[in-house]
Design a protein that fits this description.
Layout lengths: L15 E5 L4 E5 L4 H39 L6 H29 L7 H35 L4 H4 L2 H18 L1 H6 L5 H9 L10 H58 L2 H54 L1
Antiparallel strand pairs: 1-2
């Protein structure tokens, strides 16, 4: 949460000039050489804007590539990837609306040039798309849980109707946490509202304790706990299935060797035919096991990749919500 400092009414009352921004207060000492400070200030602004521009471009093209890939390849059009495409759209909108406005603030040295109303729009869109992005990851973790833990019931559970319902909740519910409390003024304190009216060129997002607890719980803590629980259950189930496959392969190899030894020692045609039939059925079973094993490996690989993404996401967001 950002602390706000009121501007001095009379610049002669202080020996320094405080310059408000969206995240901090730039203080320019009056007794410092202006050219030296100007070069440092311009360098920092140029560095920040360059980094932010690269991040915005990477976010736009990276997420656009995900959407195009799924749309162009029919094999990728599965339920899980529809969640991924929707997530990519949410992240693209974060880059377009939230990050671009933030980029403009950094470019102008901390001055908000779009007015009081657009400040509320910016803050609302920032909260809205960020919350939608987190909820998408939560839905993906639930989808992977059913795909690996309950593979036989997965087609019955994750239907197209349920997919549409989940996406509708993901896209509609964040509006109750963003646009409504921000435009009504429930999210902050009366002092901050007065400050914004007095200084419309400053666009900061300062929240009260009630909104902070509710928004952080809905946007991060509850979805984060669901994701951790889902991927823990996935890990336990994947480990159990791996052990079962290993045991079945060992048992099949021992049975195959036992049948071959019995067939050679007996030297009886009928027994050999029986053994051959058993071996053929065993080969078919092994092929089925290999197909099942290959499918499970793909599912585990997808879950592992998404687990890494979720872990990185939680690690990046955790300091923000703890602060």
């Amino acid at each position: 949460m950002t602390d706000l400092h009121l501007l001095a009414e009379d610049p002669n009352e202080t020996s320094s000039m405080e310059y408000p921004t969206n995240t901090s207060i730039y203080t320019i000492p009056m007794d410092q050489s202006w050219p030296a400070y100007a070069w440092t200030f311009c360098f920092l602004i140029a560095l920040k804007t360059t980094v932010m521009a690269l991040i915005i471009i990477a976010a736009l093209f990276g997420n656009l590539l995900v959407i195009v890939s799924v749309m162009r390849h029919r094999k990728l059009r599965v339920i899980t990837n529809y969640f991924v495409v929707s997530l990519a759209m949410a992240d693209m909108l974060v880059a377009i609306w939230a990050m671009c406005f933030n980029f403009s603030v950094e470019l102008t040295g901390g001055i908000w040039i779009f007015g009081y109303f657009m400040c509320d729009v910016w803050n609302s869109l920032d909260v809205y798309f960020s919350t939608a992005s987190i909820l998408h990851l939560c839905c993906i973790s639930v989808d992977r849980y059913y795909a690996i833990v309950q593979p036989l019931d997965y087609p019955l559970i994750m239907t197209n109707h349920r997919l549409i319902m989940m996406l509708a909740v993901v896209w509609c519910s964040p509006a109750l946490l963003s646009f409504l409390p921000i435009f009504v003024g429930w999210y902050t304190t009366p002092e901050h509202l007065e400050f914004r009216k007095k200084y419309p060129q400053v666009c900061t997002f300062t929240v009260n304790r009630t909104y902070s607890v509710i928004s952080s719980s809905v946007s991060f803590w509850v979805p984060g706990m669901v994701m951790i629980l889902m991927y823990y259950r996935i890990y336990v189930e994947a480990d159990r299935q791996e052990r079962m496959l290993y045991r079945s392969k060992v048992a099949a190899a021992l049975l195959n060797k036992h049948l071959q030894i019995n067939g050679i020692s007996a030297g009886i045609t009928s027994l050999r035919q029986s053994v051959d039939g058993s071996l053929e059925s065993e080969k078919e079973q092994q092929q089925q096991d290999q197909g099942t094993s290959s499918k499970m490996k793909r599912e585990r690989k997808a879950a592992r990749t998404l687990g890494i993404i979720v872990s990185a996401f939680l690690a990046c967001w955790l300091p923000f919500f703890l602060w």
